[in-house]
Amino acid sequence: MAVGKAGAGFLAAALLMTTLTGCGTSTNDPVPLETMTAEQIFARGERALESQPEPDDAIRLFSEVERLYPYSEWAKRALIMQAFSEHKGEKYEEARATAQRFIDLYPADEDAAYAKYLLALSYYDQIDEVGRDQGLTFQALQAMRAVIEEYPDSEYASSAMLKFELAFDHLAGKEMEIGRYYLKRGQHTAAINRFRVVVQDFQNTTHTAEALHRLVEAYLILGLTDEAQTAGAILGHNYQSSPFYDDSHRLLTGRGLSMEAQGDSWLSRVYRQVIRGEWL
To answer: Which residue has the higher pLDDT, 28 or 76?
Structure first.
């Protein structure tokens, strides 16, 4: 049947309205959350978190649960999920703030341990390359220690302990990098001070054997043979399987020196601790 001009105009208008209506219900547009229950908004947040590569929608939806239903059980659950989503999106400062807010509001809740761990993790995951400022590493250590001490029986304690040890090793690595830099530039006293920090304060890290070897190198260059031999003695006592032991052994014996403790330096005191079993 033919359509007149008026009918054609009406049909075009109807099609246009249909198109506009379809656009208006796009999932990209704001959802009328005020008409939904807290559980429904929370469920939408979970779906957004699972289905979208970026967690921005999930963060928005979880925050809306708390805004619209601030005193509900769902608000509490949404708050910890918001912190998780922010961490997933590498919004670390926001994740820390949200996790801390959960801890402040619900200190006795069973998820408080996870909130504390999430806060620590947001520092840990920001640790930069060894050569940069390590302020965040110190904060990660403090936050991980809080998890370990406050929630020792939680499922997060063992993970926090592992990350604590890795962050601790990271700090020792920074000291080693700076020490090696000074050593190459001929600033031997400055280098020794850095290696001493590793030996005294970071004994249980993976860098201790090299720190002792670098002390042997630096002390020999300065002609301080007692200190060099004592550093070699500690290295030989704890790290004979290390390649750094072989390097120090060659340096010392090549000068007619032994890997035995000599004198009464700070290294001699460390050596006596090793013999008494207080090193580890």
So the answer is: 76
